[in-house]
Amino acid sequence: MTPKSTICIWYDGGALEAAEFYAKTFPNSAVGAAHYAPGDYPMGKAGNVLTVEFTVMGIPCLGLNGGPMFKHSEAFSFQVATDDQEETDRLWNAIVDNGGQASQCGWCKDKWGLSWQITPRALTDAMAAPDRAAAKRVFEAMMEMGKIDIATIEAARRD
Questions:
Q1: Of 16, 75, 95, 140, which has the fewest Cβ atoms less than 10 A away?
Q2: CB burial readout 13-48, b (16+ within 10 A) else e
Q3: From its phi and psi, is residue 136 left (phi > 0), alpha (psi between -120 and 50) or beta?
Q4: Is the whole model's pTM more than 0.90, yes or no?
């Protein structure tokens, strides 16, 4: 059954490759059907992959190979809550080492320009803690990081 709501993500080609990468990288992710253009269109030819149905961490998505007119920005990102440093490292490194780009505060971009926040639960919990002085120390520590280091976050929370 087709979901009532699906996130449509615009790609400048590569939607199928992106979907396959997400499926092998993130839990509860899969590639569904690829749909091919029945005729030529402004950014492609008949027979090219036009759309790809896929799921990322249980979220239904549709990849659209629409061309170069629209670029991804940090205004949309997938936020991934991680349980430990091993999971944080695995997901961050998978994205960055596959042609992606590291950024700050747990953010990175995949090679297609889509933004990801790899966010350990330890960070989220520390930022929401009732001890606002500890939350401020954690925030300041996070602001110095690219990939989040949980040991540093926990140390800032304790200090």
A1: 75
A2: bbbbebbbbbbebbeebebeeeeebeeeeeebeeee
A3: alpha
A4: yes
Dist CA 83 CA 86 (whole Å): 8
**Cα–Cα distance, 127 to 120 (Å, whole number):** 11
Q: How far, in Å, CA of 109 to CA of 117, rounded? A: 9
The CA distance from 146 to 126, in Å, is 18
Q: Could you tell me how far CA 130 lies from the centroid of its own chain?
A: 29
Cα(91)–Cα(97) distance, integer angstroms: 10
